[in-house]
Design goal:
Blueprint: H1 11-28, E1 32-35, E2 45-48, E3 55-63, E4 69-72, E5 81-86, E6 94-99, H2 100-103, E7 108-110, E8 113-116, H3 118-121
Parallel strand pairs: 3-5
Antiparallel strand pairs: 1-2, 2-3, 4-8, 5-6, 7-8
Length: 136
């Protein structure tokens, strides 16, 4: 049976929570949103404006425990936008929205993996205007 205890939620569930929360936020702003297959390489979300003239891609990094974002083995985000969804398994999730070019030089290697420190992304809190609306 699934637990309601956030400390027991798996990384996959936390990832799903962040993905769908970001989809909801984009949908509220008029985007036609399509999440991609979970655990597949590539972007997490493809979205089109209402006229299907503009397309955006989004990579979502969902966090439940710490503020440091694991970026895996590649320091270069491939999506147009990176959204850090922090605390998505709690009552007050926070979203940090940045363009790829604003963060890719901020991702640092520690050991054999790449990480994004909170000081590098926290200034982008709730910057949904960076993406704009899909209903224009």
């Amino acid at each position: 049976m699934a637990s309601n205890n956030p400390s027991r939620r798996s990384n996959q569930i936390v990832g799903n929570m962040g993905l769908y929360a970001v989809c909801w936020e984009l949908s509220k702003r008029g985007w036609n949103v399509m999440p991609t297959s979970r655990n597949a390489r590539g972007v997490d979300i493809v979205a089109f404006d209402q006229a299907a003239e503009k397309k955006i891609t989004v990579q979502v990094k969902s966090l439940s425990k710490g503020p440091v974002v694991p970026m895996g083995k590649d320091p270069h985000p491939i999506a147009d936008y990176l959204v850090v969804a922090r605390g998505v398994d709690g009552k007050d999730p926070q979203f940090f929205v940045a363009r790829r070019d604003q963060l890719e030089n901020k991702i640092k290697c520690y050991g054999k993996k790449y990480w994004l420190q909170p000081a590098e992304y926290e200034r982008f809190k709730d910057k949904w205007t960076m993406i704009g609306g899909g209903d224009s």
